[in-house]
Every structure is written in structure tokens, then in C-alpha cells.
Amino acid sequence: MRPVVREVLATAVEALGGEERPGQVAMAEAVTEAFESGQHLLVQAGTGTGKSLGYLVPALLHGRRVVVATATLALQHQLVERDIPRLVEAIGAGAHKDEVDTSYAVLKGRSNYVCLHRIREGVPDDQGALVEVPKGSMAKKVLDLRAWAEQEAETGGSGERDHAPRHTDREWRQVSVNHRECLGAARCPFGQECFVETARELAHRSHLIVTNHSLLAIDAVEGVPMIPDYDAVVVDEAHELVARVTQAATDELAVSDVERASRRSRRHVGESTAADDLADAGDALQLAMDESSPGRFDEIPEQVKDALVLVRDAARAVLSAYPREQEGPSDGEVDAGRTQARGMVQEVFVTAERMAADSDADVLWLSEGGDRIPPRLCVAPLQVWSQMRDKLLSEKTAVFTSATLMLGGDFSSMAVSIGLKPAERVVEEGEVSPEHPPDALPWRGLDVGSPFDYGRQAILYVARHLPTPGRDGLGKAQLDEIVELVDAAQGRTLGLFSSRRAAETAAEEVRTRLPHLTTLAQGDAQLPELARQFVEDPHTCLFGTLSLWQGLDVPGETCQLVLIDRIPFPRPDDPLMSARQRAADQAGGNGFMQVAATHAALLLAQGAGRLVRTTSDRGVVAVLDPRLVTARYGGFLKASLPPMWTTTDPDVVRQALKRLAGAVG
Fold it and tell me: Where is the Helicase ATP-binding domain (predicted)?
């Protein structure tokens, strides 16, 4: 099979106007071997390696269905709208076209598709009755979405949110449903046209399915069948997987959720007082939350637990009070308002039951709330590695790939987080292989390198002379350093900050002291608009927080300085991270290194990766936190970064930035 993989890969690369990359070939062969042997594979492929083709070619050549799961919509779009169609076209013109099943499909969660029943029959109001015409400021947007949906239905479109006219989350909820609100294809009058059902039918007929981490987690980890049976999975952007699986398994409960479920149920439960009892339980939950402090509950306060039990029992009583479907309308029509109201109650019941169980496997906390967002109770799994090991890795062959998998210079941290054990790693040729027990899950780690010469293209500057960052935000010394570096670079700066306040403070300082430059801060406009302005004018700075650390691709002279204000450790009061760190300590490990330092290493590597995106990019990654070179854990963090030339001399860096700025004019 490997010669065929090499031939098809070469054909595809030539057809796409590229050139053969040793790392891409090595990756394709390793993925093929993983599929054939059933051994899991972690493959680190640096930016510019061409890793998409490195796994797509083996996936299409594999004899059974393969799933590709991504973390971001951007990569999903790239795969479905560019990489896969071009690869299929190249294969169709090659010598092996008859050997390859090139059918593929995209599969997303239900709420990513418009619901024909909702746009044609209306949206439930506060009492659960269907209202046909939307009112208020969002009416025109909703009507535009409805018109688009009908056009999609007429033309055989996908009905996916990504293709819809511009809209907000609130507007989209008026034309979509979640899995609990759905009537089901067999009972919906528009089931034959349903976009979700059409996407699933196409997936059942396809060899390659592209989906996202969350849907993969719901299907494999939570056991809710969402994806047709498959043999192997490729997890791209695998550094995000643990966070996405955790997010998919996290539930929230607000008092407003309880009140809405109660209100919408009243018209459906006859003379029963169950809906009123649920409202009373919501009031009890409100009182309990008001008397509790935000943050993680090491032990659930008695009043909160009692209120959760009340909500759970009241929701169960409401569910029992709903008439059975055969007791519904005599003409056989499905009451959509009732189905959706019942779904709300079911959601409240399941969440309250989970929270009241007070399981050691879960972490429960009370959020602080914020602008127009009331406090809510949140519950998340303490860890997800065991679920992934038992329910995904034990059943399927998995390939994990990303530009950032080796933290501290080794695959072990990432392997452990996804459910693989360091002792299960298959050693390379010439090394002594340990004997694995029967239940072992053998895996290999492969770093195929990068086409970039980081030692020549990039400088890592650590501002050793600055004070250690404190909790009070940026001080005068840090702000002076930022201004001097930005001035030397003449703009061309991407600032990655640990908080929105720090980003805004730095932006205001640069605007004041360097008024000839354009300085943008996250929140000034939507991210795509900010990115467009940043690219169009090199003499621009863009300062922001987490979404810029991982979600921005700006090659060229636009970005020659990446500023990182501090090592991105999780906040000490982060409920889930602090719980995981404590659990690691209690298990005899080093919670700080296993949780906080690993989290920081991953984000640092992602942030530093914004600098060099092509072989011609040049620039500086400036870390304004001296702990990177003074603290004991600094070596672990630095080993997670690309191998850049390193200095702590501010004069050397400023001169380098001035030369780069002069070279591009």
C-alpha cells in the first residue's frame, strides 16, 4: 500500500502546483501504517508541512470509512471547500483513480442546520405556542434567514449555518433546534426535506466524513450515535481535543432555564400543578445561589444541593404530567410546541440530576455572571482521558496531528491527556521494546519537522530585566518595553495578552505614545474585520486575547513582532483547572507541571506559531515574562517552542526589528 500512497500523494502535489516535502511523505506513510496496524499515532507536523494531504491521501486509500475531526470551522472549510475537492480532482486524473473511493461528506451537530419546521410553522413563544411572524428588531434578519432556508431547500443546498446570511446567535436560534427540540424525521411533516437527515444520508454513503471534535466526542465518548460506523479517525488540531471534549461534556443550569421550562409546560400538563412546583423549585435555586459565593464547590453547600434535588424532582414530575403522544391531537399531527417544551424540561432534569449526584468524577462551580448574563451552575468532568481511552481509543484506530503536540520536547504530556500511556509507546528501530499487557493500546510518536529554518527566521526574546508580572496588570516597565519594541518594528505587531484589560491598556499606551501607527484592540470590531485591517496596513498593531493566540494566520510583513505579555498559566481561581491540578497532586504527581505548565506550554507554542507562516517570514517573538528563563519550569516551556535563536538583550532585538522594518520599507 505504501508505494501507492507515495504515488497518489505525488500526483496530488503535482496537480496542486506544490513540491514534494519529506515531512509530508513521512507523515503519509506513518498514517498508512497506523491504519494498517491498528496502532495509534501522534504526529507533529509543523506549519507548512502540508499535513492535510499527509492524512487525506491515506484516508481515501484506506479500505474502510475514515472520519476526520477538526477543532475550528476555518480548517473544516479549508478541507471541504479546497483541499478535498482538489485532491479528488487530482486522483480522478491519475493512474489509481479506480482504486480510490473519493466520496466524502460533512457532518455537524443538529443546531448547525436550519430547521424547516421552525421556519415554516413558527417559534414557540414564552407560553410554548407557535408564533409565525417574528417581532422586534431582529425580525428582518430572521425573515432573511427564512428566505435563505427556502432557497436552500429548493436548490438542494446544505442548510448549514456557515452558508447563511450574516446573523447573531440569538437570530440563528429562531431558525434552528437542538436535539431535544427536534420532532424526529418520522414525525416531522418536513422530515423528507430535513437538512440534517440529508447530511446523515450522504455521510452513510460516503467513505470520508469530515466533522468536528465536539460531534466526535458526543458520538464516541458519550455514546450518542451521531456518525455512521467507521474504522479509523484522524483528529486534526489535536492539541484542542481535550478542551473540546470537556466542553461537549459540560452542562450549565441557570434559574432562567428552570423558569422557561416551567412557563412553557403550563399549557401542556392539564390541571397538574407540576409546572408551578417547578417554578417554585427555581425560586429555591435562586435563593441558594444568592447565598453562595462564586467559584468551585469542594463540597456542595447544603442549600444548593437541596435546591438541585427540588429542581430534579419537580422536573421529573412535569415530565410525568405530559400526555403521551398517542393521547395528543386526534388528527395525528405532532404538537411541536409541546415536544420542544418537554425537551426543555428534560434538559433541566438531566442537568439537575447530574449536579445533585455530586460525583467525584465531576467538578461543580457557580459562575460569577457578567453583563446581562446571570450567574449559573456549571458541571464538567474532572478528566476526560479515561473516557477517551475506553470509548474511542479501545474501539477505533486514531491518528492525532497538530503543529503542537510535543510539549517540553516530548509526546508524553499530550499522550496522557488523551488516554494513552507513555509505557505503551512503540519504540523505534534499535531500541528495546517493553512487553505490553493484553489491554495495552500501543502508539507511536512522530515529529516530521517543519520546512522553516527557525534558527534563521525567528528570534525568541525574553525580557529578563523586567519584573515578574503581578496580578495588577501591566506596569510602567512592561508598557515602556512594549512601546519601544513596537516603535522599532514600526507597527507590524501582534500582541497576545493574558486578559482583555491588559490588551486594552497596552493598546491605549501605544496609541498615545505612537500616534503615527494604527493600533487595534480586540473588541473594536469583529475579528475578521480586525484581521483584514491588520493585513492591509503593515504599520498596524493588533492587540487581543485567546482567540488571537490560535485563530489568526497572517503571513508576510504584516506580522514581524509577536508580543506575549506573560506566560499563559490558567488563572488560580479557574474552577476546572484548579480541580485537575489538585487531583494530580493527590494522585502523587506534580499538579503544577501536569496541568498548569502543560496548559501554558501549549498556548505559548500556539502563540509563538503566529510569527512564521511561510519560508520567507522573519521576525521576533518577545516574551515579557522573565520566568521563561529564570524559573525551573522555564526549560519545559522553552522546549515546547520552535527552535528559535534566543536572546535576553533588548538592544539586539530592537536593532533586529529596525533592520527588518527598513528592509520592507
Answer: 10-285
Q: What does the CA dihedral 237, 239, 245, 251 come to, rounded to 10 degrees? A: -110
List CB contacts of 359: < 8 A, sequence separation 6 or more. Answer: none
**What phi and psi, each to the nearest 5 degrees, are found at residue 619?**
165, -165
Contact 124, 341 (CB under 8 A): yes
Q: Which CATH class is domain 454-664?
A: alpha beta
Structural Rg of the chain based on CA atoms: 27
Evaluate if residue 58 carries a pLDDT over 70: yes
Decide whether 2-103+206-243+384-402+436-447 matches 454-664 in CATH topology: yes
Highest CATH level, class, for 2-103+206-243+384-402+436-447: alpha beta
Closest to 296 (Cα-Cα) out of 212, 362, 215, 247:
362
Q: Where are the domains of the chain?
A: 2-103+206-243+384-402+436-447, 110-195, 251-381, 454-664
> What is the C-alpha separation between 510 and 480, in angstroms, rounded?
9
pLDDT (tens digit per residue) in 73-87: 778 888 998 889 989
Using CA atoms, how far residue 240 sits from 163, 436, 480, 482, in Å, is 25, 29, 34, 30
Q: Write out pLDDT tens, residues 163-208.
A: 888 888 888 888 898 877 788 888 888 888 999 999 999 999 999 9
